[in-house]
Amino acid sequence: MRKAGLVLAGVVLMALASCGSRDRVPHLMNLRSTTNGPDEFAILPPKSLELPPDLAALPAPTPGGANLTDQHPKDDAILALGGKPGAGAGDAALVAYAGRHGTDPNIRASLAAEDLAFRKKHPGRLLERAFGLTTYFDAYRASWLDQYKELMRWRAAGVPTPSAPPPASSVDQPKLNTGGTNSEQKFFQ
User: How far apart are CA 79 and CA 70, in angstroms?
Assistant: First the structure.
């Protein structure tokens, strides 16, 4: 009886495996909401209203245009990382230099076709697909860049890396406070 159950389970698994179509696009990232509610991350609260010192200096209203209290999350993120929003708009010379050996106008379609072929070749295991698990990380693991190895390679080549944390050997380690007080001056002496 047990052997018949195993055979039946094997037949069911093979039937399920044969139901998959090779022509469909494999989805490696299975991120979906299980609720019918709104996406709470898409809601941005407006900035607080402020009365300007001079009302005559306000710009003319533009129907359908941007508002002074509108959020700009991409610009805020660029500022938080020390950048300048809009930088790069005047980098025509840099773009021209990067394309000095010619560019492929069909590069996006070419990369999309290559990636589709790669995803069809690595669709994930049967149970991963059956349960809707994310297989993205396993599929692209060989293409990952180890950021710490790359940082060490550039440092070994003598290239300055000012935005990266300093090497562990150059960081002064604070000495332990063995005294009876908790003052910061004594702790970091």
Answer: 16
- The total number of residues shown for the chain amounts to 189
- Answer whether 27's CB lies under 8 Å from 133's CB: no
Q: How far is CA 96 from the centre of its chain?
A: 27
Specify the pTM: 0.43
pLDDT digits (tens, 9 = 90+) for 40-76: 777 778 888 888 888 888 888 888 887 778 888 888 8
CB-based contact 71:46 (threshold 8 Å): yes
Sign of CA dihedral 120, 125, 128, 130: positive
> Could you tell me the CA-to-CA distances from 104 to 93, 109, 114, 115 in Å, in that order?
19, 10, 15, 17
CB-count burial class (<10 Å; 0-12, 13-18, 19+) for 124: buried
Nearest CA to 123 out of 6, 13, 37, 25 is that of: 25
Quick one: pLDDT at residue 184?
45
The pLDDT tens digits of the residues spanning 172-189 come to 555 544 444 444 444 444
Q: How far apart are CA 34 and CA 31, in angstroms?
A: 10
Q: What are phi and psi of 171, to 5 degrees?
A: -90, 125
Three-state secondary-structure class, residue 163: coil
Identify the burial level of 27 via C-beta atoms within 10 angstroms of its C-beta, where 0-12 means exposed, 13-18 middle and 19 or more buried: middle
Could you give the CA distance from residue 140 to residue 117 in angstroms, rounded to a whole number? 13
